[in-house]
Design brief:
Rossmann fold; 14% strand; binds nicotinamide-adenine-dinucleotide; alpha/beta; 3 domains; 44% helix; six-stranded parallel beta sheet; N-(1-d-carboxylethyl)-l-norvaline Dehydrogenase, domain 2; single chain; 19 helices
Length: 442
């Protein structure tokens, strides 16, 4: 089927490439000319496992094209996906500027009947607004459009795999025919489909992210309590997760959620609730807990050192999670800023997100080219992303290379007995600190 995808970011690009890979003829459209140029050369502008190879393959096999011309891109498309960004406004609401621009450009160029399927995360009622914009502005009055809300659930870092192995595809529409078409497109993926109304589909996306954020804030509060009561959150989470009603996922305590989705979507849902005169107390607490949690590692370090002035601090992990180069709302940004303001010498390293970080964090900062280089002569290390490279790092190198082997681990990467064995002072989340007797590093 001929498909157009407007917006080639983490969602649009993965969607377009995967749909091409299952045999559709896909044109991806983006306003970012540099991005389109790169993609035409077969190069991925984002780090996402498996994506680069698939882009090349599907361009070569002539199923995948890129353009910045909407007219050219949507020409003859049976389905036009909208996958543009919906970032937070200053007051926390979803900024729908790109959505509205995409709808206007569809209206301007659409020349045959099509299904408009929104993958972007949008407040309840937005798809009705998209329909109204297109209907009001379309040049050709004879063209009919159908609307489908088709929210996306892929996770950055495993987006391609998630597309082929998703838990469900939500198709929200008031048109049976349009829902059939979107279901048909996805058939080769063999992912379960659940059909709903448009508004329910929009709500499913926000409710899912808010629930996952709630799980994270909940386990983090339990972790903080564990620290006070000498329990170990790793054991507690494992024991909780064995209960099928709870499940083992999303019970990793840490320094809170970040990224391009949870912070913005929880804030947006708070606003959506407020607009509907609903006091969403639980979600408000989830956000508050998360904001507090993000500062917890710095507080531990402050207690340990008193001042950060002139300390050499290695920051391992800049991306908001492993296997991505996305640093939106990453814990690293705020933490490095505090360290810089306090007069520390910051050395940072991430396996994939260095280039993106360089655009956001200005000097003084040293960008190391490996974990070993980052920790060399450091007074302490902060681990902010659980990259496999850090989890599998040879612990003895911390003792050998650092000035003083003191670790603040926001992702609980290491086993407490092992760090003890290597003579490392270790502060993690929800577990007793390892402070070696008779060993006063500073
Ligand atoms: N990133 C995720 O993990 C994820 C997961 C599920 C849902 N979502 C949702 O999907 C949407 C997209 O997220 P993303 O992370 O891919 O965003 P992104 O910022 O990575 O990409 C958005 C792209 O849209 C392009 N764009 C903006 N306006 C445009 C226009 N008028 N015409 C054509 N292109 C335009 C931008 O240049 C950019 O390349 C958001 O609503 C997000 O909440 C994201």
């Amino acid at each position: 089927m001929k498909i157009a995808v407007i917006g080639t970011g983490y969602v649009g690009l993965v969607t377009g490439v995967c749909l091409a890979d299952i045999g559709h003829e896909v044109t991806c459209i983006d306003v970012d000319i540099a991005k389109v140029r790169l993609l035409r050369e077969g190069k991925s502008p984002i780090f996402e496992p498996g994506l680069q190879e698939m882009i090349k393959k599907n361009i070569t096999e002539d199923r995948l094209r890129f353009t910045n011309q909407v007219g050219e891109g949507i020409d003859q498309a049976r389905v036009i996906y909208i996958a543009v960004g919906t970032p937070s406004n200053a007051e926390g609401t979803a900024d729908l500027k790109s959505i509205e621009e995409a709808a206007i450009s569809i209206a301007r160029f659409i020349s045959q009947d099509a299904v408009i399927a929104t993958k972007s995360t949008v407040p309840i009622g937005t798809n009705d607004r998209i329909r109204a914009i297109i209907e009001e502005n379309k040049r050709d009055a004879s063209v009919t459009i159908d609307i489908v809300s088709n929210p996306e659930f892929l996770r950055e870092g495993s987006a391609v795999n998630d597309t082929f192995n998703g838990d469900r595809i939500i198709i929200g529409s008031d048109s049976e025919k349009a829902a059939d078409i979107v279901e048909e497109i996805n058939k080769p993926l063999q992912v379960p489909v659940y059909r709903t109304s448009i508004r329910s589909a929009e709500m499913i996306k926000y409710a899912s992210n808010a629930f996952l954020a709630t799980k994270i804030s909940f386990i983090n509060e339990i972790a903080n309590l564990c620290e006070k009561l000498d329990a170990d959150i790793t054991e507690v989470a494992q024991g909780m997760g064995m209960d099928k009603r709870i499940g083992p996922h999303f019970l990793n305590a840490g320094i809170g959620y970040g990224g391009s989705c949870f912070p913005k979507d929880t804030n947006a849902l708070m606003q959506i609730a407020g607009d509907a005169d609903h006091d969403f107390k639980l979600l408000k607490s989830v956000i508050e807990v998360n904001n507090k949690q993000r500062a917890i590692l710095l507080e531990k370090a402050k207690q340990r050192f008193g001042s950060f002035k002139e300390l050499t601090v290695a920051v391992l992990g800049l991306a908001f999670k492993p296997n991505t180069d996305d640093i939106r709302e990453a814990a690293s940004l705020g933490l490095i800023d505090v360290l810089q303001q306090a007069g520390s010498n910051v050395k940072a390293y991430d396996p994939a997100a260095m280039d993106k970080t360089k655009r956001f964090i200005s000097p003084p900062i040293y960008y190391a080219s490996s974990t070993e280089e980052a920790i060399q002569d450091a007074d302490c290390v902060f681990i902010l992303t659980e990259w496999p490279e850090f989890i599998n790092f040879d612990l003895k190198l911390f003792t050998l290379k650092m000035k003083t082997p003191i670790l603040f681990d926001g992702r609980n990467c290491y086993n407490l007995d092992e760090v003890k064995l290597h003579g490392i002072e270790y502060h993690s989340i929800g577990r007793p600190s390892v402070v070696l007797e008779g060993c006063h590093y500073i």
